[in-house]
Amino acid sequence: MFENIEWLFFDIGSTLVDEHLVYEHIFRDIAELTNLDYAFLYAEALEYYKQNKKGDIELGIKYHLPRRKWHIEDEILYKDAPDCLEILSKKYHIGIIANQSLGTKSRLENWGVMKSIDLVIASAEEGVSKPNPKIFEIALQRAACAPNKAIMIGDRIDNDIIPAKKMGMRTIWIKQGFGGYWQITGEDEKPDHMVENLMELCGCL
Asked: For residue 1, is it within any domain?
């Protein structure tokens, strides 16, 4: 399916890292502040995600709340992430292109996966965030890789698939987390391939 590929670039959130506990924390905070039922708010947020909107942010706007704290301590690595990265690192160079707070490389080291990763490009350190094409340019330049020899793998159509396609990279949409509810509306949003989880990804690469 993918020929002459040298580099695989991964997003982190809802791609390598499971964020469901973080979002549960956010929705619990909103429920407490609004005196509304958690299940009601979760369902409401889900409808926003299905409209290609950020449900947690939309709830904050609707209920006039400041943006909720992102509880990074609630993040957990997907169970299949270490094996997936180890398998793929034997065939490809592995990179990260992610919107993350400071210390991304240290967090990856703490999760035990940096041994399979060759390059980490994170927004806080670089001063530029996805979907800005500059962060993709930085990654490709440091990897000394042509766009057509790289694949971007991520859960977000808006942050991962669209800008990577514009750069000339190949794309794989991993439908994990809320990003999996995105409704594709145009050719620029269509990935080259879709998978449901990381081990399925290994099977197609």
From this structure: no
Residue 60 lies in a domain: yes
Edge-to-edge strand list for the sheet holding 150-154? 119-122, 93-98, 7-10, 150-154, 170-174, 193-195
> CA-CA distance, 121 to 150, in Å (whole number)?
15
2 within some domain: no
| Domain membership of residue 135 as a residue range | 7-18+75-204
Q: What does the chain look like in DSSP terms, one character per residue?
A: ---S--EEEE--BTTTEE-HHHHHHHHHHHHHHHT--HHHHHHHHHHHHHTTS-HHHHHHHHTT-PPPP--GGG-EE-TTHHHHHHHHHTTSEEEEEE---S-HHHHHHHTT-GGG-SEEEEHHHHT--TTSHHHHHHHHHHHT--GGGEEEEES-IIIIIHHHHHHT-EEEEE--SGGGG----SGGG--SEEESSHHHHHHH-
Q: What is the pTM of this model?
A: 0.95
Query: Can you say whether residue 117 is alpha, beta or left, with left for phi > 0 and alpha for psi between -120 and 50 degrees?
Result: beta
In single-letter form, the type of residue at position 178 comes to F
Please check whether residues 81 and 174 belong to one and the same domain. Answer: yes
- For residue 196, is it within any domain? yes
Digit-coded pLDDT (tens) for 76-125? 999 999 999 999 999 999 999 999 999 999 999 999 999 999 999 999 99
